[in-house]
Structures are given as C-alpha cells and as structure tokens.
Amino acid sequence: CLAAAAGGGGAMRETLDKVVGAHKVVLFMKGTKDFPQCGFSHTVVQILRSLDVPFETLDVLANEALRQGLKEYSSWPTFPQLYIDGEFFGGCDITVEAYKSGELQETLEKAMCS
Amino acid sequence: MGVTKEDVESAIAAALSPSHLVVTDTSGGCGASYEIEVVSEKFEGKRLLERHRLVNTALAPHMAEIHAVSIKKALTPAQAQPQPEPAADKPQA
C-alpha cells in the first residue's frame, strides 16, 4: 500500500537513525500490532509473532511526516518497512520470501546476539 | 486515467530486459494493484532487497498512481531453471 506525496525533513534522518537503532527489530506499518490496517502490514506482524521475537511497531498512518520521511530514509516507496539491527531489511514481499528461505530467522538470530 | 498493466509491463521490460515477465492485475476495486514475476540477468549477484529496488526504480514514474505492487518473484535466469535433481548416479560398490 502506498500513497503519493513529497517532502520530508533534514532532522528526520537523525531521528530515524535513533529510532531504528534503539530496538533490534522495528516495524513501520499501517495501523498497530494489535490492529493492522492493511493486509501487507498484517502479514509481517504475523511472521514476527510466529518467530517469537520482541519487536516495536510504529503507525505511519498516525504520522504523515514519519511516513514521508521513511520513504526517503530507506529509498523504499511502500509500507510496511522492517528494520533489523538498525538496517532496512525489506517490505512485505521480501520478508515473506526471507521467512520461507530461513534467511529472516538467521538475520534475526544474528541481531539478537549482537 | 491511471496506470495500466501494459504501462507496468513496458516500464519493467525497458529497465530490466527480462527473459520472463508476468504482470497480474490484482486490484480489488481500491485502485491499481499488481503482482509481478520477473526473471532477469540484471538480478545476477544481487540480494533480494537490491532486486526489488531495481523493480521499484523502474516503476517509480508510475508509483504515484499505483496503490500496491507485490513482487512475487525476482529471479536470475539460472534460478528460474528447474533445479536438476542431485546426481544419484553414485558408482555402485
């Protein structure tokens, strides 16, 4: 899911560095963990739950500046966006694919131990 | 008017010269929504994230009008080949 818009701030990057650095696993999504507002976001929440890792979620629908800022930060046009260990991992399709191949579990394990 | 399936196909074809490309219109009434399978030599040596970025970049001019894109497959020609069975022709003792 995505919508068109432009803009973003300079201080946004710094803030986002802090946010994705503060937690091992951060998911920027539409809606919340308990009430996803989009099927793609729901899918990633389900995957993370099934892997039993602690993760933070932030609702981009509640913050338009965050939503636009993230698109530039990750150079990724859509949500959800999953960050592991401070690094952009991917959107829904990549997460699903990596889950199936075992690469996601591997990346998460590495992150949890680092 | 918006983006058509043909627009999506030609944008990807131009950017990635795919050997295989399937674009499926999956819009369920909420707007342009597509599923994409693409096989291209340009994916050689690239992680999945980078491959998806290439597709996203190709579609960037249309993204404003597209509701959702789902990249189901982004494979190299070698990966798209059915994997040969591991050789079971061990010499019999």
Automatic annotation (TrEMBL), chain B:
Pfam families: BolA (PF01722)
Gene Ontology terms, MF aspect: 2 iron, 2 sulfur cluster binding; iron-sulfur cluster binding
GO cellular component terms, A-Z: cytosol; nucleus
GO biological processes: intracellular iron ion homeostasis; protein maturation
SUPFAM superfamilies: BolA-like
PANTHER family the UniProt entry points to: BOLA-LIKE PROTEIN 2, BOLA-LIKE PROTEIN-RELATED
Family the UniProt entry places it in: Belongs to the BolA/IbaG family.
Protein's name according to its UniProt entry: BolA-like protein
Originating organism: Brachypodium distachyon
Organismal lineage: Eukaryota, Viridiplantae, Streptophyta, Embryophyta, Tracheophyta
Gene: LOC100822212
